[in-house]
Amino acid sequence: MEKNEITSWLVETETILLEAGLNVRTSPYLAIGDGTSHPLSERFSTLANAQVIFPHATALTDEIDWCAIQGVLNSKGQAFIPDGDFQINKAIDVGGKKLTGISRSKSKITQTKPSEAILKVQSVPLVTDLYLRHSNLPRGEEVPNGTGILLTGSVNDGSVFERLYIENTTSGFYNSDGEYHIYSTAIRDIRISRFTHSPMYIGGYGHTGNLISNIYALNWNVWYGSNDPRNSVLKSAFGFFFKGMNEGIINLINLEATSCNKGVVFSGCTSIDVNSVHFEQFHPIGNYGALISSIGRNTSLNIKNVTITYSYLDSSLTTFFSILNVGNNSKVYLDGFSSLENTLIGDKTVFRRFQGDGTIQDTASIYATNLKFIDGIFNGNDYFSISPVVPIVKRVNDNWFYWEEGGKKKVLGTAIPTNGQWKLGDSVINTEPKAGGYSGWHCIDSGYLNPPVSDVTTTILVPFTSNIKINGNVDIFTKGDRITIQGSARTFKIISTYTNGGDKYLQLDQNIEVKTKNATVQYAPPNFKGYGLIEV
């Protein structure tokens, strides 16, 4: 359809709705929608006169636009919002009716009262193609005050919320932790920006068969330009919060330019498929947070493709932040995680892969596969407060699986590994034991098989020294790593790393025996030995 055809279609559609009395500018409602305040007192001298047209009005200070929209909904069961910016000072009670616009860039509804929600819904509502916003961010308000779409009753099968832009709220889409349920509802193609509590908070329980798809949340305070974006994002209590959801699908949720402790929370959710969670310009704060939290009793998740990128991970702002936090008896399958192009500030051990909260039980489990740490972040030790630890099974490839106990890898395999980084105490459990062979292999010296190419070099002009000056990225090596130095036949262990006068040094466990210049410093390979000799 050509641009002029689309314009003609929109005009024709608006005319039809106007003639049908669904357009809120229809007589006798006559909404204005010019982006400024117009109280009833502009048209009526008394409340009684106003109530002849708008029986739902309660004061002459009520906005004409609110009265008109609510009036059309009450009398027609649906209302059409044309091109314009319609000012309201009370929440529009949609209930189970239809409220639609031309598009979310043209049909705007602006709530001027910070404590009021923009829309209230229940039953079987249809809300589409609208720009919903408060005139200002409702700072100081607590949910359910200041929300965008507020559930005031259960929402039933066939309900639809789509193609919306929700801005300046405490929470964009909010259901309290009360007794309201959401059944077989579609919530999709929604952008939620500038929020103080959460972009979406679905509390309560008993939500079944719902589809949540393509929700884009971003919390810029101002566009940061070339400045540090951490100074330009708003803080919120949560990212996305889902509670009591069963047998549903969540596709494509995006949390961008947000600073909070918990990115996406699933509490008491069973049989939920989550496809694609993207974090960008995400800035974690607070203690023991996580990108994804699986908590509450009987939570079971199937999560595919989680990405974090272009984010600032500052250890001074958070204490032990993980990719995945589990509690109670949660069971999580994670297939695909990537961490790339993020900026680490401070202590990298603060950022873990997996951790358990204080509610975790020994029946909880994690299976993780296809994990990619391209920027080398999220390498801190996994932590669980119970013993034995929660089984975390991680997949390296089609034949290699492993989990960790006390920070030591336990791998299922048929031979000594041929790639990856291995530490003292890691072990391989032989899945094809044979007479005369071993039950498995223990790593007795840490090392790296097929390590990444090192840019670290050293020049030794005076041999028999154990303190060597290096050039390049010293941060790739840590205390306890075993290394080799080009030109030397020895293997060295790093006792410490330090700087002196701006130069970087490694202190080794023994002297280097040769002179060398521009010699590459590289990880040494690990040393494995068999255990549990099987009788012939």
**Overall strand count:** 40
| Share of residues in strands | over 45%
User: Uncertain regions: pLDDT < 50 for 5+ in a row?
Assistant: none
User: Which structural category fits the helices and strands?
Assistant: mainly beta
Biggest pleated sheet = 28 strands, mixed
Globally, the shape reads: elongated
- The separation of the N and C termini measures 78 Å
Helix content: under 10%
CA radius of gyration: 30 Å
- Total helical elements: 3
Average pLDDT works out at 89
Question: Which helices and strands appear, and what pairs or packs with what?
Answer:
Layout: H1 3-19, H2 47-53, H3 64-76, E1 78-81, E2 84-88, E3 92-95, E4 98-101, E5 107-111, E6 119-123, E7 126-134, E8 149-155, E9 160-175, E10 186-202, E11 207-208, E12 211-218, E13 240-243, E14 245-258, E15 262-267, E16 270-282, E17 286-287, E18 290-295, E19 300-309, E20 312-314, E21 318-319, E22 321-326, E23 331-340, E24 343-345, E25 351-356, E26 365-373, E27 392-395, E28 401-405, E29 408-413, E30 420-422, E31 427-430, E32 438-445, E33 447-449, E34 457-460, E35 465-471, E36 482-485, E37 491-500, E38 503-512, E39 516-523, E40 527-533
Commentary on this structure:
The protein is mainly beta. Among the domains are: 219-395, no CATH class; 457-523, Elongation Factor Tu (Ef-tu), domain 3 (Beta Barrel). The protein is 7% helix and 49% strand. The chain contains 3 helices and 40 strands. The strands form 5 sheets. It has a 28-stranded mixed beta sheet that branches.
